[in-house]
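Deviations from the work plan: none for this task. Representative record:
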Amino acid sequence: MEDGTAERIRPRDRILETARDMFHKHGIKGVGVDAITEAAGTNKMTLYRHFESKDDLVIECLRATACSANAMWQKFEAEHPGDKLAQLHAWVRMAADCLLTDGRGCDMANAAIELSETDHPARRVIKELKQAQRDRLVSLCRDAGVGQAELLADTLSLLLEGARVSMQSVGAEGPSAQFVRMAEGLITSFRAR
Amino acid sequence: MEDGTAERIRPRDRILETARDMFHKHGIKGVGVDAITEAAGTNKMTLYRHFESKDDLVIECLRATACSANAMWQKFEAEHPGDKLAQLHAWVRMAADCLLTDGRGCDMANAAIELSETDHPARRVIKELKQAQRDRLVSLCRDAGVGQAELLADTLSLLLEGARVSMQSVGAEGPSAQFVRMAEGLITSFRAR
DNA sequence: TCTAGAAGTTACAGACCGGTAACACCCTAG
DNA sequence: CTAGGGTGTTACCGGTCTGTAACTTCTAGA
């Protein structure tokens, strides 16, 4: 019978997707497993059959988020094949879009702040994934022919990270409103020298 | 008798100070009122005689933090009276010091991330205090004779905010390690034009 | 059609949370 | 000395949290 519609999604995936959304909106400590499973149209037992613990679920969510970010980078390459500078500008545009449409910041950064226990299992994963993203941005800057690629990449990273958290504390009219101008200015000035 | 030593601190102040420290280290949702009062050498009833609720305590803590920040700015003025550019450099140095010695980020930003409920009473206070800090940095930049003072101030703000959160996710060896170089470079380049 | 495994249901354990009530104590101001 | 306010103590309420046990129902594949 196969059910033509893609309606029938595995409970595990429904839980994962729902958890990502709810963790993103309300924070990790702000949402319980009961609320997740109910929103996912399933129950707690099924969750614990697929994930060892809530912490494990959190980690899987972070990995999924990193995976989505990967897709973003592939889109840059697909839309501007070979043109690394255009991809860098696309990165800025994507970041700005995220700022405007989202409101809540980066899931990994938020998680790092929320999970202050230094030995929390998610911290390893967060560091790992953030490091990978950093490396990728550095490569992009280097391939775009920018001198001091590391410095530009790190500056852009901090600007975006700062804009995301500033958005949540001061609001959208705060410093984060100038993100694009700052980023584009930096790229121009780094390319000039 | 008066007790010559300053040993005898009011329970309210002990609670406030202890709560600030524990909220800072473990987050707001990561520490309960019982733990606070026990660490402060008192009990829950006394806490609730001085503060309406945990949320109220959180807000008082944030105000106290803002007050400490005010003291910092007065120190800049005292150490470099009239020399606004020197005060700006002192701000950068202070920020870098904070990054190295602290590890956890800005209490207000962390609180904003943790308290994702848009109607949480602390959010008003956070926005208010962050806005005040922003205004002050803009003024400092302007008085230091920088063109586009707002843009420089906002860029420095985002860089610092980003460095604080990056420190918690990627670690101290990440992009935040370059904070001073970025900030000083920006100041130089904004003054040049 | 029959069966095995996945998923749903209900109930519960044990811990912690914020917040309150009632009462005993101490210390200081008068 | 005494009265009263600030403080400490204990117990408790109702709620929520993560995680588990035992059992039933569904569904897909042979």
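Residues 11, 42-43, 45-46, 49 of chain A lie near DNA strand C (CB under 10 Å from a C1').
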